[in-house]
Amino acid sequence: MREKMKITILENGPYLVEGNVPLAEKINVLQGRRLHRFIDGRPLPQAETYRLCRCGLSKTPPFCDGAHAHGDFDGTETASVKSYRERAKAVEGPELTMLDDGRCALSKFCHRQKGNAWTLTLTSNFEDCRDEAIHAACDCPTGRLTPLDQDGNEIENNYQPSIDIMQEPLVGVSGGIFVKGGIPLFSASGKIYETRNRYVLCRCGKSYNKPFCDGIHVSAGFLDQGRPEKAKRLFRKKNNV
Ligand code: FES
Asked: Which of 101, 172, 213, 218 is most solvent-facing, going by the fewest CB within 10 Å?
């Protein structure tokens, strides 16, 4: 079944998802003062094929309801099709190197108790800092950061192919579309982007790096039908706060 999984961008329209890709909602919450983690959100319907909204205007998010045809959505793809290795810069630490391509969804998983992914990489001669640097890099949904061990091997989480609709109640907005497990992504013109273990697609319609999320949903105050408020309530109920 895995070989049938793919995402195709439709011109000025939604993401067409094929191959029975599992779909879930995940809510970004804090554990302690700085550690971010995802908890389950509402159940979403599963289907062999579905269309995810890319313009941010749908009344039935995360699915497309055709609203893109009536707004002023410009879905032009502006992201580079160069490979991650071609785009990324390296941060060299004593026990770890971290690649960074600058794509940020403002989800803050790169921040840990002892520092952020960059400072932790620079102090990776301490075992706890090395472990934390790996978490900080690998837990980032965008795939921006990739740790390399001393032999140059990439360290990655083992994700099964699936899609998570992100909610960001800590900043009061809805987030992007977290694609996991190496699902191929085709542009509206038919070219294929580099297939990666993790990436985040824009669903507010405003990214300057379409189809990828650039974090602009935060300053744009993107809300999909008030979900972050519901997410916040769910989190408080679950955690008794
Ligand atoms: S892409 Fe169709 S409603 Fe948003």
From this structure: 172
166, 188: one domain? yes
CB of 213 closer than 8 Å to CB of 88: no
Residues 6+ apart with CB under 8 A from 189: 77
Name the DSSP letter for residue 220: H
Domain count, the chain: 2
**Is 9 close to ligand 1, i.e. is its CB under 6 Å away?**
no
**92 and 73 share one domain:** no
* Ligand 1 mutation target, pool 9, 11, 68, 174, most atoms within 8 A of CB: 68
| Same-domain pairing of 165 and 227 | yes
Would 155 be classed as within a structural domain? no
Domain residues for 216? 2-79+161-239
Which of 10, 15, 16, 64 maximizes ligand 1 atoms within 8 Å of its Cβ, making it the mutation to test the pocket?
64
In a domain, 39, yes or no: yes
Residue nearest to atom 2 of ligand 1 (CA): 64
Q: What is the pLDDT of residues 171-188, one digit of tens each?
A: 999 999 999 999 999 999
Among residues 148, 174, 197, the one where a domain terminates is 148
pTM of the full structure: 0.93
Q: What is the DSSP letter of 62?
A: T
13 lines ligand 1 (CB under 6 A): yes
If asked whether residues 70 and 174 sit together in one domain, one would say yes
* Distance separating alpha carbons of residues 132 and 118, to the nearest angstrom: 11
Over residues 33-62, the pLDDT tens digits come to 778 999 999 999 999 999 999 999 999 999
Distance 74 CA to ligand 1 centre (A): 11
